[in-house]
């Protein structure tokens, strides 16, 4: 993943999914727009915020 952020685009055809993957160092939360190349972020589950914390 590149560290550069790009401007958001209003694309009603976007398909966003998430998963929790196991790695050797723990678990990672991955959020990806599967309708675009290289449009994803990953974070350690321990560092991810609960949905209630986003409100």
TrEMBL record:
Domain of life assignment = Archaea
The lineage is: Archaea, Methanobacteriati, Methanobacteriota, Stenosarchaea group, Halobacteria
Segments carrying the region annotation (Disordered) are: 1-22
The protein's name in its UniProt record? Uncharacterized protein
The record's InterPro entries line, in alphabetical order, gives: DUF7556
Q: Where is the composition biased (Polar residues)?
A: 1-11
Query: One Pfam family name from the record?
Result: DUF7556
């Amino acid at each position: 993943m590149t560290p550069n952020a790009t401007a958001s685009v209003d694309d009603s055809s976007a398909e966003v999914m998430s998963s929790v993957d196991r790695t050797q160092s723990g678990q990672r939360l991955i959020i990806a727009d599967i309708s675009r190349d290289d449009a994803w972020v990953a974070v350690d589950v321990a560092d991810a915020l609960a949905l209630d914390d986003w409100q």
